[in-house]
User: Which sequence fits this backbone?
């Protein structure tokens, strides 16, 4: 099997869209092209010949390694599913819109939230199966580190990257699998952040070095790399990069501790160039999937 992913649903940043049957229902600017593309693909696959308007209230920053494209496509599909009573599951929507080609994390978190492990791609064209899904400790907080000046690998560049990278070493992969299955995931159930962080650190080192020929180093952003190195020097055990980046993350046992470190980062990284590029967000894990709210007129998906 190829790939295999471990990921987490977050409560922020998030996606919030509004759908209604009809053309130009919303007087605002039309939805972005990539949003309408997902809509058209789903309508074509389901043989629906109706106009649907979409208004984007909030969206996850694109190409920051946070799965924004998958969440938007699934949100659009969930809305159409409700409007036309299509009985579609997230995996169905993903297949229609070309999502989940390598990772099933965004599909799993959209459906039920929590921490998710998928089993990678087999020989067929199926979306990677979710083999573990478990609630994340409620008290833990995730600090996201953004580099606004950097865009992660995506699109054709991402396809070319996977085409040129050599297969990973089997023994190294087996060692990482052991870390995830026998240390990281049990640590989640036991709320043991130190052990979880040690395993994530090994996973990050392995994947970062594997993808370094494409992203220019263990981390995609030099600025984010400096922040993560600082946190490691401060004794923070669980840090890393989300997907292709450039977004970095650190996980803390409580909101109080996360806020303390956020204050340290704002004080330490305050040069003119750092303030222009770096930004921060403390968020929580989301242990529930997306919600669909049906009103008297529009439909809202969060």
Assistant:
């Amino acid at each position: 099997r190829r790939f295999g992913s471990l990921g987490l649903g977050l409560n922020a940043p998030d996606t919030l869209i509004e759908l209604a049957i009809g053309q130009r229902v919303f007087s605002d600017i039309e939805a972005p092209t990539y949003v309408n593309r997902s809509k058209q693909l789903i309508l074509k696959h389901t043989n629906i010949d109706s106009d649907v308007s979409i208004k984007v209230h909030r969206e996850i920053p694109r190409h920051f390694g946070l799965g924004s494209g998958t969440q938007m496509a699934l949100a659009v599909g969930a809305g159409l599913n409700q409007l036309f009573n299509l009985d579609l599951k997230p995996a169905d929507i993903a297949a229609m819109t070309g999502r989940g080609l390598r990772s099933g994390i965004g599909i799993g978190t959209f459906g039920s939230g929590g921490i998710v492990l998928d089993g990678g791609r087999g020989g067929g064209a199926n979306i990677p199966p979710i083999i573990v899904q478990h609630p994340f400790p409620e008290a833990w907080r995730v600090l996201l580190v953004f580099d606004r000046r950097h865009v992660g690998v995506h699109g054709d560049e991402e396809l070319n990257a996977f085409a040129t990278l050599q297969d990973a070493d089997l023994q190294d992969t087996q060692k990482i699998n052991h870390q995830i299955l026998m240390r990281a995931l049990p640590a989640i159930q036991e709320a043991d952040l130190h052990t979880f962080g040690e395993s994530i650190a090994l996973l990050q080192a392995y994947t970062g070095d594997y993808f370094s020929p494409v992203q220019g180093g263990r981390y995609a952003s030099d600025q984010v790399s400096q922040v993560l190195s600082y946190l490691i020097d401060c004794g923070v055990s669980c840090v890393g990069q989300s997907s292709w980046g450039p977004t970095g993350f650190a996980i803390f046992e409580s909101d109080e501790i996360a806020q303390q470190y956020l204050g340290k980062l704002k004080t330490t990284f305050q040069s003119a160039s750092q303030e222009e590029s770096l930004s921060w967000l403390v968020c929580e894990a989301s242990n529930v999937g997306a919600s669909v709210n049906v009103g008297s007129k529009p439909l809202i998906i969060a």
Summary: Residues 6-134+288-301 form a domain with the Ribosomal Protein S5; domain 2 fold (CATH 3.30.230). DSSP finds ten helices and eleven strands in the chain. Residues 176 and 202 are 7 Å apart (CA to CA). Residues 193-215 form the longest helix (23 residues).
